[in-house]
Design a protein that fits this description.
The protein is built from 17 helices and 19 strands. The protein is of the alpha/beta class and about 475 residues long. The protein is globular, with a radius of gyration of 22 Å. The chain binds zinc ion (ZN).
Length: about 475
């Protein structure tokens, strides 16, 4: 056991919490931990319960409710949480943790993962990675949030050189997949006529929990991949507008969720034209030119698509904070003010924000994914607490509704592997956050983390951040 783990284990034992190392058999004999006196917001949709008791044994919750419903057994370790607020561990449904060719810089990913855990994020879904390498890195970075990798899948245009028409003439770009590969990510090519079951097998063998579709896929391809994935019990998500398939077509083809609200820019383009827009620069250009206002987000095609998502129960993950950070960066860059990526970033932020308002008003299921990355300047990484603050301040959600998008609904978005996450109830994994202040009064108070519990092991935020 490395020195850090020994130290942390000792610290946990001094608190009376369960040991880090456990087997199923040992869990049976482990003492019950009773968290007593907190106001419990359990993430099920029920109102908060004052003076609650939550019993934890091993890695699971065995009881959550009133003192009468959950009597503390003799010999239990009591954790006094009077005056505090207990919520389910937060789930970020969109992160990118892997960022080096053929692997990761371990100290970097370790520091980032522990910072996420210290913020109360006990589970994440990684939406672009190399599943095998990512899981390897996460195993070596414990303690860390749970990480559920998705397998990237894209069509032939994503792997082909791009030609872009510019005022100076045609410019040829390297395949868009090259950038991903430089990060150490592993996109799989799916061609029309290919066997989607082969893709599912590859994804599963690599350790992915579902597919994330990217670029260069039409409706028929999305439908075939979705059917094969669903038959294997895997969810299928996709980048908003996988070019040529639009968000509406993605939903109609059976996809479970769409990321990036700004991707509904594709709805503004007639279908016949859309078929020719298969490159990254085409997506940037259409968004920058046609989807740069809030009014554009209220056009009938966009609203009809949102109604389709609501009717079919297709999730939308808006990624507001990341989009806002990109727009702020673009706004600061006077030199590049007219550059396409910056014009795109500014348009996507305005358009995506209004799309999200309309989506919420129309009952589209929303989940809180940030597009957080584990690399680059820490201040430029999107964070869940800001995403949720934007849900409340800019979209008009109540704090409860925003929290559901990062707990119960986020677990639903991930699917089967997260079936025992997201709520505080008997039988669920003991992933919990104790807050000093009431998050239902002000969502920013999810930053007031006193301790975080993952699978029954309790951590102090400053201790986590201090680990080597
Ligand atoms: Zn992303």
């Amino acid at each position: 056991m490395p020195v850090a783990s020994v130290r942390l284990t000792r610290w946990l034992l001094s608190l009376g919490a369960a040991s880090l190392v456990a087997t199923a058999a040992a869990a049976q004999q482990r003492p019950v931990v009773a968290i007593v006196g907190a106001t419990l917001w359990d993430g099920t949709g029920a109102p908060a319960l004052a003076g609650a008791v939550v019993l934890v044994q091993g890695e699971r919750i065995t009881c959550a409710g009133t003192p009468a419903a959950c009597p503390v057994p003799a010999g239990a370790e009591r954790v006094d949480a009077t005056g505090r607020f207990l919520i389910p561990g937060l789930i970020d449904t969109h992160v990118h943790l892997l960022f080096r060719p053929n692997g990761v810089t371990h100290p970097s990913i370790r520091g980032d993962l522990r910072d996420l855990l210290a913020r109360g994020v006990t589970a994440t879904r990684d939406m672009g990675n190399n599943p095998e390498r990512l899981l390897e890195a996460v195993r070596e970075a414990q303690p860390a949030p749970r990480v559920f990798p998705m397998q990237l899948v894209a069509g032939i245009s994503f792997f082909s050189p791009e030609s872009e028409r510019t005022p100076g003439g045609m410019v040829r770009h390297a395949p868009a997949s090259g950038g991903m590969r430089q990060l150490g990510w592993w996109p799989i090519l799916y061609v029309s006529g290919g066997d989607p079951r082969q893709i599912i097998r590859q994804a599963r063998e690599a350790g992915a929990v579902g597919l994330k579709l990217y670029q260069g896929l039409d409706s028929a391809q999305v439908a075939r991949l979705s059917a094969a994935a669903h038959a294997a019990g895997m969810p299928v998500w996709g980048h908003g507008w996988v070019q040529p398939a639009s968000v509406r077509e993605q939903s109609q083809a059976g996809q479970d969720g769409v990321v990036h609200a700004a991707g509904l820019a594709g709805e503004l383009v007639p279908r016949a034209t859309r078929d020719s827009l298969r490159t990254s620069s085409a997506l940037l250009r259409v968004t920058a030119d046609s989807a740069r206002t809030a009014e554009a987000a209220r056009r009938v095609q966009v609203l009809a698509t949102l109604d389709t998502l609501a009717a079919r129960g297709t999730f939308l993950e808006p990624t507001l904070h990341a989009t806002l950070l990109s727009a702020e960066r673009a706004g600061r860059s006077r030199r590049r003010a007219q550059a396409l990526p910056d014009r795109y970033a500014i348009a996507a932020s305005v358009f995506g924000m209004e799309v999200t308002r309309q989506a919420f008003a129309r009952g589209v299921p929303l989940t809180a994914g940030t597009d957080h990355v584990a690399y680059g300047p820490a201040a430029e990484r999107a964070q869940l607490e800001t995403e949720l603050a934007l849900f409340v301040d800019s979209i008009g959600m109540s704090p409860e509704r925003a929290l559901l998008a990062a707990t119960r609904d986020a677990a639903r978005a991930i699917g089967q592997p997260a079936v025992d996450l997201g709520t505080v109830a008997a039988g669920k994994k003991a992933d919990l956050v104790l807050l000093r202040e009431d998050p239902l009064g002000d969502i920013r108070r999810i930053g007031s983390v006193e301790w975080v519990m993952r699978g029954g092991a309790r951590y102090d935020p400053s201790e986590l951040r201090g680990l080597p």
